[in-house]
Write a structure and sequence with these properties.
It is a single chain. Helix content is about 0%, strand content about 50%. It contains no helices and eleven strands. A hairpin with a 5-residue loop joins β4 and β5. It is globular.
Length: about 120
């Protein structure tokens, strides 16, 4: 199973980035997916989840209204559009496949990618 995330980088506060995650080796279209982040010295923080069937989306309060999760099943790709970025969004962002449990819990995801670094700084 491979989850290859990309799109991170250095951006100024208020800027935007779009993360992508290409998934191989499992039936992406049948798995709910999510993004989880980890800031330096902190624990993993769940960011967002998108379901596979009705594509309902869920967001952490800290990113609601600024981030948008989406998926393209034809391309086996998960996205995270991040707008109005803040310094506190600085973290390594991981895409992951949902397994079971609460949608808002990082422990509910079993397959993780290697992550992509997002740094928000002036």
């Amino acid at each position: 199973v491979q989850l290859q995330a990309s799109g991170g980088g250095l951006v100024q506060p208020g800027g935007s980035l779009r993360l992508s995650c290409v998934i191989s080796s499992f039936a992406f279209s049948r798995r709910s997916m999510g993004w989880i982040r980890q800031a330096p010295g902190k624990e993993f923080e769940w960011v967002s989840t998108i379901l596979t069937d009705d594509r309902r989306t869920y967001y952490a309060d800290s990113v609601k209204g600024r981030f948008t999760i989406s998926r393209d099943n034809a391309k086996n790709t998960l996205y995270l559009q991040m707008d109005s970025l803040k310094v506190e969004d600085t973290a390594r962002y991981f895409c992951a496949a949902y397994d079971r449990g609460p949608y808002h819990d990082a422990d509910s995801f079993n397959f993780w990618g290697q992550g992509t670094q997002v740094t928000v700084s002036s």
